[in-house]
Amino acid sequence: MRTKYNRVLLKLSGESLMGEQHYGIDPVRLGEYARQIKEAAESGVQVAIVIGGGNIFRGMQGAAKGFDRVKGDQMGMLATVINSLALSSALTAIGQKARVFTALNMYPIGEYYSKWRAIEAMENGEVAILSGGTGNPFFTTDTGAALRGVEVEADVMLKGTRVDGIYTADPEKDPTATKFSEISYDEVYTRGLKVMDLTATALCKENRLPIVVFDMDTPGNLHKVLEGENIGTLVY
Asked: Model pTM greater than 0.85?
């Protein structure tokens, strides 16, 4: 398979791992994701992954309920580690090598993250799963994904969501919302579109890391994006 990209940073939301459930990890959805990621790796694309933790715990929601914000964010970071271990396990079960890296030193749960070790893993055909966000409170996993994407020199950040791109409004609430095939970072900002938080968007813009927002919940879509099919929205 001819692919458009050599190395990608795939950002998955924690909520998407819930599948049809209201909490936690849906084994069916996890298995579907693992198969799509294995297919990508087998095509020769080097894959790094950052997963959110919203299916287990969100720091900001915890802070709203009275948790200390720093502790809440640290709990959120641990949630991303749980999701990363689950994905690693699902990949290994179907014969795809994967390595979990953690932003905080958590040996032997995962290897302490270093750019060079992550790139080495990808060059050896392993999927590098980068957990723990940035390792710091007050930063989202979107910002963590943008940072890691820039660090590992990815060609693109693929943001897998449950919608098939970026719309003028929330398509689940507004039937008149129209989809963008491509949009600039600045327009995302001026229109106030909730693609990612501003820190993540600014980091991608400053380092010229394009973003493709696409529907990851439809099996086969990751393959289509890697081949260059225009099924999502390109942010440039």
From this structure: yes
